[in-house]
Specification:
The protein contains 12 helices and 2 strands; from the N terminus they run H-E-E-H-H-H-H-H-H-H-H-H-H-H. By secondary structure, the chain is mostly helical. It has 2 domains: about 1-30; about 40-295, Orthogonal Bundle (MetI-like fold). The protein has a two-stranded antiparallel ribbon. The protein is globular and about 75 Å long.
C-alpha cells in the first residue's frame, strides 16, 4: 500500500511539474534572461551600435554612479517621494476602510467612487490632471485667479520643482490609496463582529478596539501593503514622467541615462543598485515586523 502511495505521489509530482514547465520556461525567458543580461552589461561599456562589441570595464559603471551628484539628488527625491506617498496612501486607505466598515445606504456607490482612480488607466488620469492645472484653460487656475483672486498670474504648477513635486505626490496618493482600502476592507469584512460587541460591553473606546482587535487582524496585510507599495512607488516612472519633467525620481533618472545619454552600462548598474536598496529595505521591514510579533 505504501509503495503504491509513493508511486502515485511520485507520478502526480512529475505531472504537476510537467504542467508548470511552460510557465517556468516563460518566467525564465521573460525575467531570468533579462536579469542576467542586465548584470552582464553593468560591467561593460555598451556601444550604441549593436553590431559593435561591448568592452569589459569592471566596476567603472558602478564607480561612475556613486560619484555622480545627480544620482544622490535623485535618490533623495525618490526616498522622500516614496515615504510620503506610501505612508499617506496606506493611512488614508486604512482610515476609510475602518470608517466605512458598516452598513449604510449607498455603500456600493461609495466603494465604486473610491476605487475609480485605481481602475481607470493612468494615462487618462494624468492628462486629466494636466488639463485641470493648465495655466491657460485649467479649472484650478480659473478658481485661484478669476474666482478667489489669490494671485494675479496663473501659477505654472508643473514647471516649478516644489509645486510639481507636491502635485505628483498628491496624484500618486489619490491613484494608489484604493489598493490599501480594498486590502483592509477585505480583512475587516471577514472578521467576527462579536469581538467588537464584547469590547462594547466592556466599555472599550474606538481606539482601544482598534489596538486590541483591528490592528492584530490587519497587521499581516499592512506589512504586505507597505512592502508592495514601497516597491511600486520606488520604481515609479510613467506617472512622474508624463506629468512633469521637474521631479527627478530614480525611474526618470534611469530612463534618461539609458535612452537620453545612451549609457546602457551605467543604466544597468543603476538598476542593480536600486534592486539591492529595495530588497534590503523590504527584508529589514519584514524582519522587524516578525521580531515584534515574536516578542
Amino acid at each position: 500500500m505504501n509503495k503504491k502511495t509513493k508511486k502515485l505521489g511520485g507520478s502526480q509530482t512529475k505531472f504537476a511539474y510537467a504542467l508548470l514547465a511552460p510557465s517556468l520556461i516563460l518566467l525564465v525567458l521573460l525575467i531570468g534572461y533579462p536579469l542576467v543580461y542586465n548584470i552582464v552589461i553593468s560591467f561593460q561599456d555598451v556601444p550604441l551600435n549593436p553590431n559593435m562589441p561591448s568592452e569589459f570595464i569592471g566596476f567603472k559603471n558602478f564607480i561612475d554612479v556613486f560619484t555622480d551628484s545627480s544620482f544622490y539628488s535623485s535618490v533623495l527625491v525618490t526616498f522622500l517621494f516614496t515615504i510620503i506617498v506610501t505612508v499617506i496612501s496606506t493611512v488614508l486607505g486604512l482610515l476609510l476602510s475602518v470608517f466605512l466598515n458598516r452598513k449604510f445606504v449607498g455603500k456600493k456607490l461609495v466603494n465604486s467612487i473610491i476605487i475609480l482612480s485605481y481602475v481607470v488607466p493612468s494615462v487618462c488620469l494624468i492628462f486629466t490632471w494636466r488639463y485641470m492645472f493648465n495655466n491657460i484653460y485649467g479649472i484650478i487656475n480659473y478658481v485661484v485667479v478669476d474666482m478667489l483672486h489669490l494671485t494675479d498670474q496663473a501659477p505654472l504648477w508643473f514647471d516649478q520643482p516644489v509645486s510639481a513635486f507636491i502635485l505628483v505626490a498628491l496624484f500618486a496618493i489619490w491613484k494608489f490609496f484604493p489598493y490599501a482600502y480594498i486590502s483592509f476592507t477585505a480583512i475587516l469584512q471577514s472578521m467576527d463582529n462579536t469581538l467588537y460587541e464584547a469590547a462594547d460591553i466592556d466599555g472599550a473606546t474606538n481606539w482601544e478596539k482598534f489596538k486590541a482587535i483591528t490592528y492584530p487582524a490587519i497587521k499581516p496585510t499592512l506589512v504586505t501593503v507597505v512592502s508592495l507599495r514601497t516597491i511600486w512607488v520606488f520604481y515609479i516612472y510613467t506617472e512622474v514622467y508624463l506629468l512633469t519633467k521637474q521631479v527627478d525620481v530614480l525611474g526618470v533618472y534611469l530612463y534618461d541615462m539609458a535612452f537620453a545619454t545612451h549609457d546602457f552600462g551605467k543604466a544597468a548598474a543603476i538598476s542593480i543598485i536600486l534592486f539591492v536598496f529595495i530588497f534590503a529595505f523590504i527584508m529589514l521591514l519584514r524582519k522587524k515586523v516578525l521580531k515584534v510579533e515574536e516578542d
